[in-house]
Amino acid sequence: MRQLISLTDHLIKAGFCSPEQIDSWTENGEFELNGETTATGIYPFDYTYQGIIILQEVSVDLNYILGLVSCWLLEHDPERERLELGNPSFSGDPFDDGTSDLEIRLKFYEKPHYSPGSGEGAILINSISYIPSEYSEDVAEELEGVLVND
User: How many other β-carbons are positioned within 10 Å of the β-carbon of residue 82?
Assistant: First the structure.
């Protein structure tokens, strides 16, 4: 649920609401066994979930909030279309005092990577201990002095 946590933090840091005015959680989560190995570990599973963000009694323009969400998604979740996650949705309740409650729903996909190691969050797969880790594919541009992408 790293993406939902990160997006929620992004909205709080924008400064238009206090942490007490925002809440987020997940619904309809599904995970699938994976087992894909990498040079530095394994992806034991991947999962999708519905993220829900509730903003309470905010007094900022809806377009600003949806702009913040959209820009975050474009930067941090560029594979949404390829993964067929669909568009986010929202609903709101305006109040007489100029504030409103807003609910934003969006689907996320995550694929956690685990590297060999021990400690907090360790899991055991085929008698090897793995811990959660970040993974990025480093692509070699040279191999023993030979250009790879010529």
Answer: 8
pLDDT tens-digit readout, 92-111 = 998 999 899 999 999 999 99
Assess contact for 114 and 44: CB atoms under 8 A: yes
Residue 136: count of CB within 10 angstroms of its CB: 7
Nearest one of 87, 109, 97 to 26, comparing CA atoms:
109
Rounded to two decimals, the pTM is 0.83
43 within some domain: yes
Identify the three-state secondary structure at position 54: strand
pLDDT over 70 at 52, yes or no: yes
Q: Closest Cα to residue 105, out of 89, 92, 91? A: 89
Q: Express each pLDDT in 79-88 by its tens digit.
A: 999 999 999 9
CA distance 9 to 141: 36
CATH number at residue 44: 3.30.2000
Range of the structural domain that residue 107 is part of: 2-114
**In contact, 109 and 128? CB cutoff 8 Å:** no
Domain count, the chain: 1
